[in-house]
Write a structure and sequence with these properties.
CATH superfamily: YVTN repeat-like/Quinoprotein amine dehydrogenase
Largest sheet: 6 strands, mixed
Radius of gyration: 21 Å
CATH topology: Methylamine Dehydrogenase, Chain H
Number of helices: 3
Mean pLDDT: 91
Shape: globular
Low-confidence stretches: 1-21
CATH architecture: 7 Propeller
Distance between the termini: 46 Å
Structural class: mainly beta
Length: 397
């Protein structure tokens, strides 16, 4: 048998297993989908092309969400009641903060206040804003602009330090780092995280734009240090007490030849303080040892790039979404004792009270997640018809 025939036989034998792995659906008991974007009833629904969910946070019975819109359209803020399984409020931010297109930083909580950053319309000279959002006991939304931290630039990543009452962020497209003091309203902007001309030339050779290489998320440790990624494939920390930046010695985990595409995709801080991060380029998960400032590479959840969002589960488990367009997102779990599990594509029943349509909804493109205080995991799609998907965290790894 020649080599070509041997290879053909191998693929024929492997075919059923490969097909099965591609079409595994995750539908645990207690899971459900919440209709948010099918404009076929009198219930509140978000319109197409403005409803890609890119930020979520749970607050009591409500989930607060922020969207990204197509160019020329305004993003939305919305709240969903988990007990009622429906959207209860939608707010167009254009009335208060015109000229914006995306709320993609995620939300940081400060008691009953939530902070996020906006990206202005593509190609415009508008500035992104730090916004403050409040949700009342009926789920209604109030939004105000706190600042435009870097004139003419968007807010690409953001996090909040409650102990110092400071907001930290990354500006787009420059990659500059900024600090906003919530009390004094003062802004400091730093150039240490911005790519050098040589870095920018390397990115251009790979046809990468700032949205492809800038740090997507920031995280703070117990000492208050802020971590993010900078060029090329490096992790930095910022000490707000000394105003000093440090570049960690360990690079982000990467596949050889692809380090130029390395950047932080997501962070998650576990209840015990353990910090996990992900590299967008190849979807590696890693643990950040804050005591030694070392990176521990934990490997890949699936054989695809991107690892866009992660949240804590129970008993040391984390859940995350790996993969992105043009492929399908896969839900996965990771535990230090048992490693990775590829849970496949979530497929949950959509049964809105009063609208017993019984649709089985599959989540193919998922960009953001949040965890509730009672152990539910909520995922938001970032498609033309985006829905929320909810499932209970497992009790055992």
């Amino acid at each position: 048998m020649n080599r070509r025939n041997i290879i053909a036989v191998i693929f024929l034998l492997a075919g059923p297993a490969v097909a099965k792995s591609q079409y595994e659906f995750y539908c645990p008991k207690g899971s459900y989908a919440i209709e948010a974007s099918l404009e076929s009833t009198k219930e509140l629904r978000m319109p197409m092309y403005r409803n890609a969910m890119t930020s979520l946070i749970a607050t009591g019975d409500y989930v607060l969400g922020g969207t990204t819109a197509d160019n020329g359209l305004s993003p939305l803020l919305f709240t969903t009641s988990l007990s009622q399984r429906k959207i209860v409020a939608i707010k167009n931010i254009d009335a208060e903060i015109p000229g914006q297109q995306a709320i993609g930083t995620g939300f940081s909580a400060n008691g009953n206040l939530f902070y996020a950053g906006t990206m202005p319309q593509t190609g415009s000279s508008n500035s992104g804003h730090i916004i403050q959002v409040q949700v009342d006991n009926r789920g209604q939304i109030n939004v105000t602009s706190l600042a435009q931290p870097v004139p003419g630039e968007g807010v690409f990543a953001l996090t909040f330090n409650r102990n110092r009452n400071e907001i930290y962020g990354i500006a787009h497209p420059s990659g500059k780092f900024f600090v906003y003091d919530v009390k004094s309203k003062k802004i400091q902007v730093y150039n240490e995280t911005a790519p050098s001309p040589g870095d920018t030339a390397s990115y251009h050779s790979f046809a990468l734009t700032p949205k492809d290489y800038l740090c997507r998320a920031l995280v703070t440790d117990k000492q208050g240090r802020v971590y993010g990624s900078r060029s090329i494939n490096k992790l930095f920390s910022f000490d707000p007490a000394t105003k000093k930046f440090t570049v960690l010695k360990d690079p982000l985990p990467f596949v050889w030849g692809r380090e130029v595409m390395g950047r932080i995709d997501a962070w998650v801080t576990m209840p015990d303080g353990t910090i996990y991060g992900s590299n967008a380029a190849d979807g590696q998960l890693f643990r950040l040892d804050v005591a030694t400032q070392k990176i521990v590479n934990l490997g890949k959840a699936i054989m695809m790039p991107r690892l866009m969002s992660m949240v804590p589960g129970k008993n040391g488990m984390l859940y995350g979404v790996a993969g992105a367009a043009p492929g399908y997102a896969h839900l996965f779990s990771y535990h230090p004792k048992t490693g990775f599990r590829d849970l496949g594509n979530p497929e949950f029943d959509m049964v809105t009270p009063g609208l017993e349509q019984g649709i089985k909804w599959r989540g193919y493109q998922i960009a953001t997640m949040t965890a509730t205080s009672n152990g539910q995991i909520v995922m938001g799609e970032n498609e033309a018809l985006s829905q929320l998907m909810v499932f209970p965290a497992e009790n055992q790894p």
